[in-house]
Amino acid sequence: MTQDVLATFPAIEIKKDESLSHYTNTKTGGPADYVAFPKSISETKSLIDFANDRDMPLTVIGNASNLIVKDGGIRGLTIILTKMNQIHTSETRVVAEAGAAMIDATKAACRASLSGVEFAAGIPGSVGGAVFMNAGAYGGEISEVVEEVTVLTRDGQLKTLSNEALDFGYRHSTIQDYEDTVVSATFNLKPGDQTKIQARMDELNRLRASKQPLEWPSCGSVFKRPTGYFTGKLIHDAGLQGTRMGGAEVSKKHAGFIINVDHATATDYMDMIHHIQAVVFEKFGVHLETEVRIIGEDA
C-alpha cells in the first residue's frame, strides 16, 4: 500500500507511520498510518478520491491546536492542511485557505485596514478549524465575520456554503455534522483604521498572554462553558489547579487549560479530563462537556 500511495502522489509530501505528536499543540498523539500534506484544493481532492476508491479511513486536520489524538494513533490516511495556507484580500474581504493560521488571517486583515476579526488575533488554530468549531474569543465569534465557506464533500465534490447554511452555534458548525472538508473561507469585514486595528490586536494578545499558559504545550480551552458558569472558576473552586496525572497538569495560571509539563501522553490528558469532569460534577452537579476534539484509537 505504501508504494501505491507514493507512486500515485509523487508530488505530495506523504509520510508513513508518522507520530502525530509532531503536529499537535499538546505534543502528544500516536502514529498515523499515512500523513499527507497537500498544497492545493486539487491535491486534496485527489487524496480524498484515493481514499474513497480504496475504502481507506480518512481524517482531515488543520493546525491541531484544539485537538487530542489518542496514543493508538489514526488508521488509514490523515490529511494535514497546513501547507494550504494562501491568504488574499480584496476590497472588504479576506479569502483564506483552510490551512492558513487564523492569526495570519487577522494580520492580513490589519494590513488591508479591515476591521471585525481582531478578536481572533491570538486564536492558534487554522482557518478551517476555526470555521469547523465556530471559534471565538473576547466577545467575538467566527460566525459573525464568515460570508461563505468552500468545502470538499466526502465524495470529492466542491461546494460553497453560505453563513446561514453553516448553522453556526456555540462552538458548532454544520461541518461537524457531515464529512465535508473546509478548503477556504471568505471573511466579510469593514474598513477601519489600521493603527486602531493593530492596537486592539496587541491589547488582546497582551491580555491572552497574561491570563493563559502560552509558554506550555496545551490544547487550548478543554471544556465548553456551561450555561450560567465559568469553566475555569468551577475547576479552580473544585481545588484542581496544579493537579497532575503523568505529565499533564491543570494549569495554575488558568484552570481551563491542561498543559504538558513533562512528556505527557494523550492518555494522561484523557485521564485528567475524566478526573476533572468527575470532581466538578461531584462538587457542583455540573457536567463539563469537552470543547477539544478527541480522535484516534486507544493505545
Describe the model.
- By secondary structure, the chain is of the alpha+beta class.
- The protein has helices at residues 2-8, 41-53, 102-111, 127-132, 194-211, 231-237, 266-284; strands at 13-19, 31-37, 58-61, 67-69, 74-80, 87-90, 93-97, 114-115, 136-137, 140-141, 146-152, 158-162, 181-188, 190-191, 244-245, 248-250, 258-260, 293-295.
- The strands form 6 sheets. Strands 6-7-13-11-12 form a 5-stranded antiparallel beta sheet.
- The chain is globular, with a radius of gyration of 19 Å.
- The model has no long low-confidence stretch (mean pLDDT 95).
Briefly, what is this?
This protein has helices spanning about 1-10, 40-55, 100-110, 125-130, 195-210, 230-235, 265-285, and strands at about 15-20, 30-35, 60, 65-70, 75-80, 85-90, 95, 115, 135, 140, 145-150, 160, 180-190, 190, 245, 250, 260, 295. With about 300 residues, the protein is an alpha+beta fold.
List the helices and strands and how they pair.
Elements: H1 2-8, E1 13-19, E2 31-37, H2 41-53, E3 58-61, E4 67-69, E5 74-80, E6 87-90, E7 93-97, H3 102-111, E8 114-115, H4 127-132, E9 136-137, E10 140-141, E11 146-152, E12 158-162, E13 181-188, E14 190-191, H5 194-211, H6 231-237, E15 244-245, E16 248-250, E17 258-260, H7 266-284, E18 293-295
Parallel strand pairs: 2-5, 3-5, 4-18
Antiparallel strand pairs: 1-2, 6-7, 7-13, 8-14, 9-10, 11-12, 11-13, 15-16, 16-17
Mean pLDDT: 95
Count of DSSP strands: 18
Approximately what portion of the residues adopt beta-strand conformation?
A: 25-35%
- Binned, the helix content reads 25-40%
Shape: globular
Q: From N to C, what is the helix and strand string?
A: HEEHEEEEEHEHEEEEEEHHEEEHE
Q: What is the count of helical runs?
A: 7
Radius of gyration: 19 Å
What composes the largest sheet?
5 strands, antiparallel
- Cα end-to-end separation: 23 Å
Based on helices, strands and strand pairing, what is the structural class?
A: alpha+beta
Q: Which residue ranges are poorly predicted, with pLDDT under 50 across at least 5 consecutive positions?
A: none
Task: Give the strand line-up of the largest sheet.
Answer: 6-7-13-11-12
GO molecular function: UDP-N-acetylmuramate dehydrogenase activity
Organism: Lactiplantibacillus songbeiensis
Protein name: UDP-N-acetylenolpyruvoylglucosamine reductase
Keywords: Cell cycle, Cell division, Cell shape, Cell wall biogenesis/degradation, Cytoplasm, FAD, Flavoprotein, NADP, Oxidoreductase, Peptidoglycan synthesis
